[in-house]
Design a protein that fits this description.
By secondary structure, the chain is of the alpha/beta class. The protein has a domain at 9-117 and 147-159 and 185-207: Formyl transferase, N-terminal domain (Rossmann fold, 3-Layer(aba) Sandwich). The chain has helices spanning 20-30, 49-57, 72-84, 102-105, 128-137, 175-199, 202-208; strands at residues 9-15, 36-43, 61-63, 90-93, 112-116, 143-150, 161-168. A seven-stranded mixed sheet has the order 3-2-1-4-5-6-7. α4 links the parallel β4 (90-93) and β5. α1 runs parallel beside α2 and α1 packs across α6. The longest helix is centred in the last third of the chain and has 25 residues, at 175-199. Bound molecules: 5-O-phosphono-beta-D-ribofuranosylamine (GRF). 5-O-phosphono-beta-D-ribofuranosylamine is lined by residues 15, 17-21, 94-95, 115-117, 186.
Length: 213
């Protein structure tokens, strides 16, 4: 495995909020379970706790806020400039709450991955954990999950799936206990997926996933 490992894999993590998934990535890089490093953390939200986590870890952090009247496309082009400056091999959307346009994605073909707290094809958009919980309370589901996928375009929580895992909703769950289990599963699946990407040449891994070359 060591021979296939690229220890210089550069991760840029985009966050909008708490950053518990960012923390899992930082910790996994520090303890060697991800053979790469977080080159930078970028947020659209100046108050994102994820930015503080980056500072505490000694990782460069940048706030790129949308300016008054700025179009999505212009914002995304400016964001792409900032992110490109960190020469990322893989860009991780970990609680990033904006839909990215081709003005960003076009600069990083098959390099952007997203984490979604639901199974492939299910509950796209915000509040997926709460919506899964509500469906369970209505007797409409007993399982939800998490997934990590490539982000080829503006499709919301949609794209070639790299990994997924079920999270059962137990009869004695509260929203809080279910949510905690979803987050624990996210941390594990996201770290495992990034490790796999780091252990293989990025291009080859993305091709295996069926993304355009
Ligand atoms: C996660 O549930 C992620 O799947 C969703 O937003 C949440 C971010 O959590 N997109 P955190 O900021 O990593 O704690």
């Amino acid at each position: 495995m060591a021979s296939a490992t690229n220890p210089t894999t550069r991760l840029v993590v985009l966050v909008s909020g708490n950053g518990s998934n960012l923390q899992a990535i930082i910790d996994a890089c520090a303890d060697g379970s991800i053979p790469g490093r977080v080159a930078a953390v970028v947020s659209d939200n100046a108050d994102a706790f994820g930015l503080q986590r980056a500072v505490r870890a000694g990782v460069p952090s940048v706030h790129v806020g949308r300016r008054d009247g700025e179009s999505r496309n212009d914002y995304d082009a400016r964001l792409a400039d900032v992110v490109a400056g960190f020469a990322p091999d893989v860009i991780v959307l970990a609680g990033w709450m904006r839909i990215l346009t081709a003005d960003f994605l076009g600069w990083f073909p098959a390099r952007v991955i997203n984490l979604h707290p639901a199974l492939p094809g299910e509950l796209p958009g915000t509040r997926a954990i709460e919506r899964a919980w509500q469906e369970a309370m209505a007797g409409e589901r007993t399982v939800s999950g998490v997934m990590v996928h490539l982000v080829p375009d503006e499709g919301v929580d949609d794209g070639p799936v790299l990994a997924s895992a079920d999270v059962p909703i137990r009869p004695d769950d509260t929203l809080e206990t279910f949510e905690q289990r979803v987050h624990d599963t996210e941390h594990r699946v996201l770290v495992d997926t990034i490790r796999t990407l780091c252990e293989q040449p990025t291009r080859a891994k993305m091709n295996n996933a069926g993304a355009p070359t």
